[in-house]
Amino acid sequence: MFYGKRIFITLCCAIAAVFMIQTAATAEEKPAETKPAAAEAAAPAVEAPTGDVSVSVLSQYIWRGYELSRNSIVIQPSATVGWKGFSANLWGNIDTNPYYGGSEGKSYHGTWNETDLTLSYTKTIGLVNLGAGYIYYSLASLNSDGLDRADAQEIFASIGLNTLLSPTLTVYKEIDHYRNWYFLLGISHVFELNKMVSLKLGASASYLLSTYADATLFNAGAGYGGYPKFDGDSLATDDKFSNFHDGVVTASLPVKATDKITITPTLSYVFPLSNEARLEMKGQGLKGTATPSERDSSYLYGGVTLSFSF
Asked: 86, 137, 174, 270: which has the fewest C-beta neighbours closer than 10 Å?
């Protein structure tokens, strides 16, 4: 976990360095006092690296339909550098009041409980956007025994269209402990209200295909056991989950405070797309009840994101 924090700090320093280099390069590009000869060919423009740092403050952390925080504010810093289609992102989650099986404020590895590293490449060909990448999830304990959850690794590929609603299909393949495929189809549209404010509406639907399930290991905790199917009481079985999973609708209101600073309030609603998903999302929930079927399977949460790009 501390390793993840060091990586995050290192990437932030790298972004700061990129910003300073970019600023210096811009200063050097000012036109000289003497105009070049007309016959002299113009030097080709050099594509400069880009960067973005942001922090989100949200009422809850929900990931792919799963409740990963409860009754607490989460803070999610993010830093990205990009160049010629390649990008590297480091993202973290800070749970200000961890909730473990009904015990609030009890933290076993501190409040910083996740650090994700994403490496990706995107390419646009006409109306088609193509992408591929790799994600490493460094996960801290969500269990009362204090044991770390098993880290996860994914590879993914995406294809999208630069048309109305910007439909995009992304396929994720977990290649470490959790062994599943996750198919995500999303759409979105932006309405420009004025030069500073826009309204962005989005929706997505997913399908989860598990290739491994072990109820005994799953119930033992620490993230082992794959993605099992849950029975009518929201208890794990040895059957593999394979069905439509979670749907999400989101509304956000990006406000450009300056050319580089954007403030974005966001509201999202997450819900199951099948009865099997409802039972599974309850079984994976955090609500401290003796009966898993009494847990939640849909969530309404929101917050605000402050971002700085260069």
From this structure: 86
